[in-house]
Specification:
single chain; 144 residues; mainly alpha; 2 domains; 77% helix; 0% strand
Length: 144
């Protein structure tokens, strides 16, 4: 199991070299080119990870506390949408005496996004309440 990600970078570089480098080429030259490509890919990956880290750190460091509460807002807004579509609308339809329109449904994308956010947030909050600490828990819950 490659925990560092370096193996996957090396495999990617080797795969690229195998596709574009002729099989009859000098193996030493191919190895040099593969190592150079591997270093370029590694630099790019590090830049992407650093950029993501900097974005998360700046979001958590800003004074706007709403950004830190955005996850619970998504949870509560999703519950409100579910309540409206599956409770309010059927009750209104019942009292109006008309059948519930079948076109009023929450899309599959809503369910995927909402359950993903809720699942991650609930796991993070549960871990935080048990005393777990760390950058990942802080990023999930928005706490410091």
């Amino acid at each position: 199991m490659d925990l560092t990600g370096l193996g996957s970078i090396a495999d990617l570089a080797k795969g690229i070299m195998d596709k574009f480098w002729p099989p009859s080429a000098d193996p030493n030259e191919k190895l040099k080119a593969q190592m150079a490509l591997q270093q370029m890919i590694e630099i790019r990956e590090n830049a992407v990870i650093d950029a993501q880290k900097n974005i998360i750190v700046s979001e958590m460091a800003q004074g706007d506390s709403y950004t830190k509460r955005a996850r619970p807002t998504i949870v509560y807004a999703g519950l409100a949408f579910i309540f409206m579509v599956h409770v309010v609308m059927p009750i209104l339809s019942f009292f109006k005496g008309t059948p519930m329109p079948t076109s009023i449904t929450l899309p599959a994308e809503f369910w995927w996004a909402w359950t993903g956010v809720c699942g991650i947030w609930v796991i993070g909050r549960s871990a935080e309440k048990r005393g777990a600490e760390g950058a990942v828990i802080s990023a999930i819950t928005g706490s410091k």
